[in-house]
Amino acid sequence: MAEDFRAGYQILRLRVLCGCSQEELAFGAGISSNYLRQIEHGTANPSLDVLTRIFAYLYTLVTGQEASPALFAIDLLSEDIPMWRYHIVHETQCHPDLGAFPTLGVQVEVQRRGVWAVLDTLHDVTVDLAVLQPLVAAFNHLQLSPLHLRDAVEAIL
């Protein structure tokens, strides 16, 4: 089941990065939208044929060329896709008039080929944990590219 969830998570990430709706991908792969939703959430156990059709359709969206199902290996494709993980970091800032005060930042890690590494930290984002928690959860769910982290935080906060 863990591998199915991993595949579903990669499908979700690729679909979002391609700007493809669940309905479009499901139609392109010849499956129902409900089944695709279950695959993405890790609650379905898709066959290799279904996974190959999904990845072939996504490959076509990315490259503009129709893919033969045998053109690529699913494991190789998913291993080369970076995964991002966002965390809230507790920090202390100092201000000449206010002294030391607690603040929160956002740290992003990247995983490539099974190894996690800190990529960047955005310091002093807010002091309100209730505001930052859903934001970080959304970044993790959508797999927001770190390239857009600063812009997203500035736009939202």
Question: What layout of secondary structure does this protein have?
Answer:
Elements: H1 2-18, H2 22-29, H3 33-41, H4 48-63, H5 74-79, E1 83-95, E2 99-112, E3 115-126, H6 129-142, H7 149-156
Antiparallel strand pairs: 1-2, 2-3
Report the structural category.
Answer: alpha+beta
| Poorly predicted residue ranges | 1-5
Mean pLDDT: 82
Helix content: 40-55%
- Report Rg: 19 Å
Order of helices and strands: HHHHHEEEHH
Largest beta sheet, briefly? 3 strands, antiparallel
Tell me the β content. 15-25%
Describe the structure.
- By secondary structure, the chain is of the alpha+beta class.
- It is 50% helix and 25% strand.
- It contains seven helices and three strands; from the N terminus they run H-H-H-H-H-E-E-E-H-H.
- It has a three-stranded antiparallel sheet with strand order 1-2-3, covered by helices on one side.
- Helix 1 crosses helix 3.
- Residues 1-5 have low confidence and may be disordered.
